[in-house]
Write a structure and sequence with these properties.
Strand order of the largest sheet: 3-2-1-4-5-7-6
Structural class: alpha/beta
Number of strands: 7
Order of helices and strands: HHEHEHEEHEHEE
Strand content: 15-25%
CATH architecture: 3-Layer(aba) Sandwich
Number of domains: 1
Largest sheet: 7 strands, mixed
Helix content: 25-40%
Radius of gyration: 16 Å
Distance between the termini: 26 Å
CATH class: Alpha Beta
Length: about 210
Amino acid sequence: MTDPASELSSDQAATLHHYVDLLLDINTRINLISRKDTGEVYDRHVRHSLAIATKDFPDGCTVVDWGTGGGLPAIPLAIRFPDITVVAVDSIGKKTRAVSEMAEKLALTNLVVWNGRAEEWRGKAHYSVSRATAKLAKLWRWHKRIRIPIEAPPECWAGGLICLKGGDLSAEIAALEQVDSRVQVEMRSLADVAPGFPDKQLLHVGAIR
């Protein structure tokens, strides 16, 4: 797998670096990311989020980011895929206000921000994404409630949940399979995609047809 950060256009790369500047500025007032990470925001947060872009998303699809925090992975994905709609969901109002502010300054017309609990979002989406927001079983429950089936070409993700997690995930996967026996979990190491994340995994959870 190729590092998706290496495939950005010059304009996309510039927009992502502008996002990092905005994130760092707002983070001095609102805790969006760990203060110990501020010197490595691009590598630790943006490149990590872009690992989801190892596959494409079909034009016109909707992707919902559960627990977006400071806009991760929602904003990097909205920049990388301008022809999709990304919905950034978070229950903490000061975080969604910060994401809205950054989206406006970055002119991201394909990003929608929603403040509230994941269980209460009334929209529909073809994909869900998450960056260590909750356990797999809970993330899958959120996705199943709002999912729209999609026939995606081979270069794109199949419809479902795509998330970034670390550590031993065997217990989480087992718990997921207990609550829904008709799921298929695919897991890839990020070691070859984004150097610096040797213990991180990229997972796709989909329904068995």
